[in-house]
């Protein structure tokens, strides 16, 4: 196992080496492709995707911190890029497991934070982690009265590595033109990422988030949020109830259609309730943060990354959705300009943005629509127009939409895996209308 670098230069060197290896490998294949027939080219590119996915998973899993967060973003995009199944499996390792921290270190950290020997705090704690993520490691444990809990422990010195990783990654993205956006937009994106990561490093903050969402969903059937145990929580250790259920891929192995449909509807409702009613969104929506029970009940985990909105933004976002679905191009684009998504009067830029709205509105116009079904070509159509956006830096993702759309994309990817069929218009419209009425003072 290679040693995890902690200095900014060490981590930058590791990230730069990764970028160089991946870039050089694709360049080499472009040269080799000249001498290959079509079948050989496809096979070589497939094998190269797998190799590079494994490189990304290995390097970012070792680095943890912000670097691994970027890897998790790639994992969320794997299905949308239509990469081989082996690539998705390699990248999905980043969702819930990095290189584990030795249990001796975990024991020391828990005992130091909670100021008591481990055997006085818990009747038992499993030395094998439930998962090692980018910022923390989680262990199953049992309270003295036998109740099962999960103990999450922040990685040592992670505060320093997050700051250095973000600086390194930002430099790489700007120098390498990876984002191909102007400096001001990249600054906004990375500042938003920084704020969310700083919140994730404070377990008092996450405990407060858990209490907020547990209360909000207490009487909502089909959705579970774990309760915390305050006497076993500090800024670096978080103890919460252990929820029942299986990860998504295990759930799909034996879930019948009714359970899949119910699970998907519960997922969709969590999104609508969080955005339009609570105005507080669980913004780390990869599949590793959800558990699924046999009846379709969904457990939501990891509330370190939560994005909050004011009621006026939420109302305008709801208006964009309603006018976009109804086909009102002029009003939709006017609202998007107000929100900062379109920063010019260029008709070509406006036309391209409207084309994207039309694609995104399609499931809401189709009556009953199955996510991931034979008529679902949203990802293909979005991918096809994606390169055209590089010509229009005046089309931007407003700050409040960065994590909102990340969460929406994560939920949609899970709905596709579940193949959920619903009248999405009928499901979403009451939430939109309620948000608009509240902002207008009619509620």
Can you characterise this structure?
This protein is an alpha+beta fold and 443 residues long. Among the domains are: 8-95; 245-443, no CATH class. The chain has 17 helices and 12 strands. Helix 11 runs parallel beside helix 17 and helix 12 (311-326) crosses helix 17 (424-439). It is globular, with a radius of gyration of 22 Å. Mean pLDDT is 85; it is low at 76-84.
The helix content is 55-70%
Shape type: globular
Structural class, from secondary structure content?
alpha+beta
Mean pLDDT: 85
Rounded to the nearest angstrom, the radius of gyration is: 22 Å
Q: Helix segment count? A: 17
Quick one: biggest sheet? Answer: 5 strands, antiparallel
Instruction: Give the distance, in angstroms, between the N- and C-terminal Cα atoms.
Output: 58 Å
Give the helices and strands as they follow along the chain: HHHHHHEEEEHHHEEHHEEEEHHHEHHEH
Beta-strand content: 5-15%
Low-confidence stretches: 76-84
How many strand elements?
12
């Amino acid at each position: 196992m290679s040693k995890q670098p902690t200095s900014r230069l060490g981590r930058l060197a590791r990230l730069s080496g990764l970028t160089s290896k991946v870039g050089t490998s694709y360049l080499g294949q472009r040269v080799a492709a000249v001498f290959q027939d079509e079948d050989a080219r496809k096979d070589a590119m497939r094998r190269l995707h797998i190799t590079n996915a494994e490189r990304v998973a290995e390097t970012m899993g070792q680095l943890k911190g912000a670097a691994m967060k970027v890897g998790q973003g790639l994992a969320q995009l794997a299905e949308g890029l239509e990469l081989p199944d082996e690539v998705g499996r390699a990248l999905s390792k980043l969702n819930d497991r990095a290189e584990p921290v030795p249990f001796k270190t975990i024991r020391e950290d828990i005992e130091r934070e909670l100021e008591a020997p481990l055997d006085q705090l818990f009747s038992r704690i499993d030395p094998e982690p439930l998962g090692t993520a980018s910022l923390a490691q989680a262990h199953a444990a049992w309270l003295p009265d036998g109740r099962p809990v999960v103990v999450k422990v922040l990685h040592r010195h992670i505060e320093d590595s997050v700051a250095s990783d973000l600086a390194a990654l930002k430099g790489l993205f700007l120098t390498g033109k990876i984002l191909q956006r102007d400096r001001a937009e990249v600054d906004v994106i990375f500042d938003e990422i920084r704020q969310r990561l700083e919140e994730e490093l404070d377990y008092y903050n996450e405990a407060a988030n858990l209490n907020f969402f547990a209360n909000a969903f207490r009487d909502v059937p089909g959705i579970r949020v774990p309760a915390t145990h305050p006497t076993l929580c500090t800024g670096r250790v978080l103890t919460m109830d252990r929820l029942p259920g299986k990860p998504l891929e295990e759930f799909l192995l034996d879930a019948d259609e009714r359970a899949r449909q119910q699970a998907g509807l519960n997922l969709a409702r969590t999104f609508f309730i969080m955005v339009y009613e609570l105005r507080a969104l669980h913004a780390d929506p990869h599949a590793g943060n959800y558990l699924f029970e046999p009846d379709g009940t969904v457990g939501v985990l990891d509330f370190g990354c939560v994005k909050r909105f004011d009621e006026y933004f939420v109302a305008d976002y709801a208006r964009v959705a309603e006018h976009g679905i109804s086909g009102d191009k002029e009003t939709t684009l006017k609202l998007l300009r107000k929100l900062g998504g379109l920063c010019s009067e260029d008709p070509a830029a406006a036309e391209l943005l409207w084309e994207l709205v039309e694609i995104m509105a399609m499931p809401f116009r189709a009556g009953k629509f199955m996510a991931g079904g034979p008529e679902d070509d949203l990802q293909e159509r979005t991918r096809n127009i994606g390169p055209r956006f590089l010509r229009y830096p005046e089309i931007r993702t407003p700050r409040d939409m960065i994590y909102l759309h990340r969460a929406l994309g994560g939920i949609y990817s899970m709905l596709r895996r579940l193949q959920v069929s619903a009248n999405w218009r009928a499901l979403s419209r009451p939430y939109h209308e309620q948000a608009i009425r509240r902002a207008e003072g009619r509620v």
